[in-house]
Specification:
It is built from nine helices and 15 strands. It has helices at about 60-65, 70-80, 135-150, 215-220, 235-245, 270-280, 300-315, 335-345, 390-395; strands spanning about 35-40, 55, 85-90, 100-110, 115-120, 125-130, 155-160, 165-170, 180, 195-205, 225-230, 260-265, 285-290, 350-355, 355-360. The N and C termini lie far apart (about 65 Å).
Length: about 425
């Protein structure tokens, strides 16, 4: 039977063994990447505790987990960065016996000229118009009504004689991460209290209680999840997922081979983040560093990071081309090993969006490191960010911060103002 060749001329008469490889029929099957979000819901959420559920969009996430809940807000941040990715979620209830974080806004005086009070819950602004001659009690009631009208906020408000008590919707230490501020943009943006009144701000604190994630790990079973967003960055919860992901008996072991990578986020000072980084050395874990002044919730940063990672890694650079003009096709990942190899070596741009603020930045190449590094970059040492400084300076909502890990050096950027901090 005659054999046709694509590149060897049929008229060759020189004796030799000729061979060519034709990859036109190579496997180009689609392997859809999946993300798993883990977090707390509120009582109004319809999702069942400890059961994986497919979340097809932002609105469904709010319905399943409750408006303003930790998990709903994480899903919203994910969807701002990836609107079409396959997302699963496992909801957990608030810890029993825990406390909700709370803070206060204490108003005093009487308004002498009508104005607007700008209350920031995390990175969300609530603008409340205050009429002239309003006393402290009236201002407090107006602020309370404005906050409660926005059901997607992570807090509720209650007024009493000039004092607005703001309480987290979810129980636990998560509520302590919710920033409470007035006039965050400042005078230059036209944000200042109406004349005649003053306000004392007490930030949210007192949240306590830890969730048990053993049921979540059990619910994951042997289902493969390529990106796992785990918002609890304390030692015990990280240790649980280190065991679940390990190379000997976990998801990366020869007997299971279901792979995946865990992402988490931690807000703290640089020195404390350094201590955390030195104590970790897990190739299946990435910790996103969040600086204290960043107004966005750490779970929102985490959701945005995972959404952007899925978008970037979904594009397979090794996918074969049928001709020189064919572009790389999405959803053509040949193996999960390739997924994580690409994350180690990628230099393609990565976009991060939180609260409708997009910043386009570059990814560094692979770096050797003995430990998992949690990095907050110093401007003078990050020359490859020079081209986005102008864009960052215009986006005053978010803090400049980045995470680096020797096996997964994805580098998201968020800004409020550019604050230099040392590289570990």
């Amino acid at each position: 039977m005659a054999i046709s060749f694509s590149n060897i001329p049929s008229g060759v008469r020189v004796p030799l063994f000729y061979a060519e490889v034709d990859n036109s029929q190579a496997n180009i099957g689609s392997n859809n990447l999946k993300a798993l979000l883990i977090g707390q819901k509120v009582s109004s959420g319809k999702a069942e505790d400890g059961v994986p559920v497919l979340v097809t969009g932002d609105s469904q996430g709010k319905e399943l987990f409750g408006h303003g809940s930790m998990l709903a807000r994480m899903n919203s941040a994910f969807r701002e960065n990836n609107s079409v990715g396959e997302v699963w979620a496992i909801a957990v209830s608030d810890p029993k016996g825990g406390k909700k974080a709370s803070g206060t806004l204490t108003f005093s005086g009487t308004v002498t000229a009508a104005g607007t009070v700008y209350v920031y819950i995390g990175a969300d602004c609530v603008a409340i118009n205050i009429p002239n001659s309003s006393d402290a009690a009236a201002v407090a009631k107006a602020v309370t009504a404005g906050i409660n009208a926005k059901t997607d906020l992570p807090v509720t408000a209650e007024a009493s004689e000039g004092v607005v008590t703001i309480q987290a919707k979810n129980t636990g230490a998560y509520g302590n991460d919710i920033a409470l501020q007035l006039n965050f943009q400042g005078y230059a943006a036209g944000e200042e209290l109406p004349e005649g009144i003053a306000c004392e701000v007490a930030t949210l604190s007192g949240g306590s209680g830890e969730v048990d994630l053993e049921a979540v790990i059990t619910a994951m079973g042997d289902e493969s999840y390529d990106f796992i967003a785990m918002p609890y960055a304390d030692g015990a919860h990280i240790a649980s997922f280190t065991t679940e992901m390990n190379d000997k008996t976990g998801r990366w072991s020869p007997t299971r081979q279901i792979y995946g990578h865990v992402y988490t986020a931690k807000r703290d000072t640089v020195s404390n983040l350094q201590a955390v980084g030195k104590g970790l050395n897990d190739q299946h874990l990435t910790v996103m560093a969040v600086e204290p002044k960043c107004p966005s919730l750490a779970v929102e940063v985490l959701g945005a990071l995972v959404g952007s990672c899925l978008t970037a890694i979904q594009n397979d650079p090794a996918h074969h081309r049928k001709n020189q003009d064919q572009r790389h096709q999405p959803n053509k990942i040949r193996s999960r090993n390739l997924i994580h190899s690409r994350r180690r070596n990628s230099r393609q741009p990565l976009d991060i969006v939180v609260n409708n603020c997009r910043v386009d930045t570059l990814l560094p190449g692979n770096r050797e490191a003995k430990h998992l590094d949690v990095l907050c970059g110093r401007l003078a040492q990050l020359q490859y960010f020079n081209r986005v400084f102008a864009a960052l300076d215009r986006c005053r909502k978010f803090e400049f911060c980045r995470s680096h890990q020797d096996h997964a050096p994805l580098t998201p950027v968020k800004v409020s103002s550019i604050v230099p901090s040392p590289v570990l």
